[in-house]
Amino acid sequence: MSKKHIPTLVQDEPWLADYETQIKARSDRFSKALHEIKNYSGSITEFAGMHHYYGIHFEAWRNGWVYREWAPAANQLYFIGDFNGWNLSSHPMRRNPRGDWEIFLPYEEYKTRFVHKGKVKVRVESAKFTLDRIPAYITRVVQDPENHDFAGQLWFPEKFQWNDSKFSPKSNFKQPLIYECHIGMAQEKLGVGTYSEFEELTLPRIKAAGYNTIQMMAIMEHPYYGSFGYHVSNFFAPTSRFGTPEELKSLINTAHKMGIAVEMDIVHSHAVKNVNEGLNEFDGSENQYFHPGEKGYHEGWDSKLFDYGKFQVQQFLLSNIRYWLEEFHFDGFRFDGVTSMIYNHHGHISFGDAAAYFDEGVDEDALLYLQLANTLIHAVNPNAISIAEEVSGMPGLCRKVEDGGIGFDFRLAMGIPDFWIKTLKHKLDEQWDLFELWHELTNRPKKEKSIAYAESHDQALVGDKSIAFWLMDKDMYFNMSILQPSLVVDRGVALHKMIRMITLTLGGEGYLNFIGNEFGHPEWVDFPREGNEWSYQYARRQWSLVDDPLLRYQQLDAWDKVMIKLATDYQILASPPAVQLHLDPDKKILAYERGGLIFIYSFNPTESFFGFSIYVPKPGSYQIILDSDEKKFGGFKRLDPSISYATDDSQHLQLYIPNRVVIVLERKK
What we know:
Elements: H1 8-12, H2 20-41, H3 44-47, E1 55-59, E2 64-70, E3 76-81, E4 94-95, E5 100-106, H4 107-110, E6 119-125, E7 130-133, E8 141-143, E9 150-153, E10 177-182, H5 195-209, E11 213-217, E12 220-221, E13 234-238, H6 245-257, E14 261-266, E15 271-272, E16 297-298, E17 303-304, H7 311-328, E18 332-335, H8 338-342, H9 364-380, E19 385-388, E20 410-412, H10 415-426, H11 434-442, E21 449-452, H12 457-460, H13 467-472, H14 475-478, H15 487-506, E22 510-514, H16 543-547, H17 553-570, E23 579-584, E24 589-594, E25 597-602, E26 609-615, E27 621-627, E28 644-646, E29 652-657, E30 661-667
Parallel strand pairs: 10-11, 10-22, 11-14, 14-18, 18-19, 19-20, 20-21, 21-22
Antiparallel strand pairs: 1-2, 2-5, 3-6, 4-5, 6-7, 6-9, 8-9, 12-13, 15-17, 16-17, 23-24, 24-25, 25-30, 26-29, 27-28, 27-30
């Protein structure tokens, strides 16, 4: 085959040559699917407009409300709610040949009954059962505080006035610095935080911290708070436990005015299995939205799995993407559970053989859906971002579809936090292998971008520990005062700073931090549940710790701020990957260049070095612009930033390098 017919992905990654046929088949399948979509709807954007058709809408041309639902296996649907006194049979819906059900409510007849905040459901009669369900495309769901029943809620507010038109996330996403957060646990109170509280109290902290992107978890409605938002029931409804849709819009609008992009943790990898609240067996069949039988059930997650090859399921999920982008001005998505989606075995195998990326274990329907999803995202907003939570290393995940890829912009570098936790759990720092460290932080595809992170919400959950807690453990409760010396805390603070800096500057083209971890939040995350007597003690963030000038949390926070500012000022993550300058496994010294800066680390636990020779790419005079040993960062002030270091004839610098420190040098002339 001539080179011009070889997919670009294979040209760039010759090790994939044996799988050229499969890669080309994926591209061809996508092209065919997109052609069919355009023939059907005119464009992928119009194809993803089913939220304007299904659900509840006011149609001015008919002067009334219409409600439509896709339920092909149902025998009869009845619209019920406050508007008809919950009469179970007074409002039957009519079916068309496609399996769509519809009812029209004239304005003049229903204007006083079909009103804002009224509750609704749909009664579904099928061969299997008769149940009252929540409409699939409903945009608001509320829970009754007394009987705990969930119901759809009519939501007819005044039109929200956006004023973020001047904001574009384009510059943010050149190097996304992501603050991952959960609205409900973002406050210090023992309770559920709100969108409004987050806007007023938390957004200013994120702005001051220097992060340019927020990643919001748990936005899509979920019946069980403790699921962290990953058991979604109502895909078009922002969760009402945090407030109203307009309050969420106000939060995003304010973030945009601050210059902060907002992306959503979108869950299209599975859905809650609940019949009363979710989509499961909506029309009485097992295979309306999901695969039937075992293939439609995720044993590890106890949830339902979508049939991505089904035309109507593609429309539902793609419409969901368009809805969040357009209605709420989200700037993109972090796709949850991509590994589980793209493999029939959900990634529960070893990926030592490249064949595993192309054999029968791959769900080609899911890959096609993700290609379509990424195409849609960039059609709706060319500057939007898509991030894949994917651990297997699927080739081409973050390459353009036309190159033979799946179309994501970034992948989460999930191996990095796993490496850190494994290292902290099983090794003292004098046992750390710098060759292994360099490999884990730099091993990524050449033309695919990664989001590096030392820890996310996954590492903070109950049963695990944050990095700060792995380093300092119980001393965080007793020895974090700046007035009280502690060898354990000194070590922990020093390594916490180094771990975050090396992950930020070496590990990828973007960076992520989980809310509170920037200052070493001491406790895990544990949502109210029966096992903890429904306590909110660990489902919050203790900002009072970082606000106290007598505690060392403030030192870690100060370090994080200057670290993020350094990355922003020098566009380090938008620069080419780092070039190693020095690696001494015995003395535990590592040096590299990135973004025009020289980064030098001493992971040596005890020994400092005088006149240590480090090669630099350009001759000249160098100066320390940042070091982790400054007093304000909890260090011992062993370095003098006023000193200039000149290269010798062999282009080396002779440096004093204390133990457990990171030094950043810039060439001044």
